[in-house]
Specification:
16% strand; 434 residues; alpha/beta; 10 strands; 4-stranded mixed sheet; 6-stranded parallel sheet
């Protein structure tokens, strides 16, 4: 069996990571290989006092007391240099316990200082120390109404590092998580016999985890944790068509920089009435390509697919998989040079409380709309030089870093645009003059 190491950075990264460990333990006794990093003590302190305290020892936790002040430069430059050796040491110790280390999972948020700054510093460390090991990053993007005024700076500065040093990035949009949780809670309160939703289903339940009392972000964190639960299922269980994690990057990323994969998850709820039949398998496939099930606000069907992975759990046959791919293919716009760009995985063990589940990972040009909105918010601050002095006061941070980050995200948007609208598509062939 292959192994992965989970590196959780910042408040959001650690809360999501601990939701993942909680759910993984419900499925089976899981040997954890994790490094938990946060520059505030709050969340890590709760972990050591909560239901998961026996899962981690104190040496796996790296913390400070003052936090990064929502400043990417403090997290990346100040704390990165201070804790570099300690982080490398803990990751190496975790790696030594793996017989076949296949992948690092980095979990962090983009809007704060520690998650974005120190998180991307750790990503570079992983590339330097373990260049042959795949690096898959789950990044939680802020909403436009984020209460961190500097989140556009932090996010765009982090984007440059993700584009250069990650093998795959699974972007998750906070607004999409809010919308999904709202829909599920509304359905659970409607009381319709045909779709009674179980309130403590594993998708949004706040039970277990870091603390016993449910907190506002627990339901959102649980959705991201279920994403990780599905993507790691092939490494944790037997299946008729298991997928190695490094195959994700190998098969879904035709261009190294365009490694942002849009995740969608189904089902998003558990039916409370066991006598009501679950959604038909074919409907589950349709849901996976619906914008209502995407974890970022985008609609891939109106953009261009470069490749797509379908990772199923439960009693599903290859014939079901092939039939649904053939059914959906005519409705999905793929690039002409990769019409067969599908990767599939079948894990025979379903998630707790479900008969089936499906995670779709789409390399699709729709992500550029998220990046475009982020760049607009960055530019709005940067034009006024708002709050720049807080960043430039940090040793190692220069104005050029902002310009390079802006150039990087602009180039990324341009790359996706060129795929959608190739230059001179009907250009005549060169002919030799006679």
């Amino acid at each position: 069996m292959t192994q992965s190491i989970v590196v959780q950075v910042g408040q959001c990264g650690n809360q999501v990571g601990c939701r993942f460990w909680d759910l993984a333990l419900r499925e089976h006794a899981h040997v954890n290989q994790a490094v938990l990093v946060d520059m505030e003590e709050g969340v890590l302190g709760e972990i050591l006092q909560g239901p998961l305290r026996s899962l981690f020892n104190s040496t796996q936790l790296i913390s400070d007391v003052s936090g990064s002040g929502n400043n990417w430069a403090v997290g990346h430059h100040t704390y990165g240099l201070t804790y570099r050796e300690q982080i490398v040491d803990q990751v190496r110790k975790a790696a030594e316990h793996c017989d076949c280390l296949q992948c690092f999972f980095l979990i962090h948020s983009m809007g704060g200082g520690t998650g974005s700054g120190l998180g991307t510093f750790v990503l570079k460390l992983l590339e330097e120390e373990f260049p042959e090991v795949c690096r898959i990053v789950t990044s939680v993007y802020p909403t436009a109404e984020d209460d961190v005024i500097t989140s556009p700076y932090n996010s765009v500065l982090a984007m440059k590092e993700l584009t250069e040093h990650a093998d795959c990035v699974l972007p998750v949009d906070n607004q999409s998580l809010v919308d999904i949780v709202g829909k599920i809670q509304h359905m659970s309160n409607t009381g319709k016999p045909s779709c009674t939703i179980k309130k403590d289903c594993t998708i949004i339940s706040g039970q277990g985890g870091v603390v016993k009392v449910e907190k506002p972000f627990d339901a959102m964190n649980n959705i991201v944790a279920n994403l990780l639960l599905n993507i790691t299922s092939s490494a944790r269980f037997e299946g008729s068509l298991n997928m190695d994690l490094n195959e994700i990057a190998m098969n879904l990323v035709p261009f190294p920089r365009l490694h942002y994969l849009v995740p969608s998850l189904t089902p998003l709820y558990t039916l409370a009435d066991v006598n009501v039949p679950p959604r038909r398998l074919d409907q589950m496939f349709s849901d996976a390509f619906s914008k209502d099930h995407q974890l970022i606000r985008a609609d891939p069907k109106h953009n261009l697919y470069l490749a797509c992975a379908l990772m199923l759990r439960g009693d599903v046959q290859m014939s079901d998989l092939r039939r649904n791919i053939e059914r959906l293919k005519p409705t999905l716009p793929f690039v002409p040079w990769n019409q067969e760009g599908w990767k599939t995985s079948l894990c025979s063990v379903p998630p707790v409380c479900h008969s089936h589940s499906l995670l779709a990972l789409a390399n699709n040009t729709c992500v550029k709309s998220t990046f475009f909105e982020l760049r607009e918010r960055f530019v709005k601050l940067y034009r006024r030089k708002a709050h720049l002095h807080h960043y430039l006061a940090v040793d190692g941070m220069e104005l050029a870093g902002f310009n390079e980050a802006l150039s990087s995200i602009s180039d990324l948007i341009e790359d996706y645009t060129h795929l959608e609208h190739p230059l001179m598509p009907n250009a005549p062939r060169l002919t030799i003059a006679t």
